[in-house]
């Protein structure tokens, strides 16, 4: 097992096992895998719940939205992001409808409007955005925090 993406929905924990390219459920109290495969992906990296019935995933060069219909998760939309090669981490800012997507190989963060998948902003810095496996936006300040595993620091963008 090689856990990459992680998100909470209600009283359940979901994680992405990169080795098997599958989203799984974990017990919220113990953190142990419950053995239930929720969604099978192609080279999945990140997951982010948009609602109780929608999951946003990142995989290589694309974003994909899955919608829950009855007991199955169905791919609703998959969009290739131009000039993106390794879409490792995602963060969804519900208030603005923006998705922040890290492109580790190209040292970029894309800010994407969810409703039409248009790129509204790009942060690019080969020193500050290197091996960026996690990101977060502070909704109070608007600051973007990016894990920089190369320098072992957190890079901050405005």
TrEMBL record:
InterPro entries: 6-blade_b-propeller_TolB-like (IPR011042)
Protein name, per record: Predicted protein
Organism of origin: Naegleria gruberi
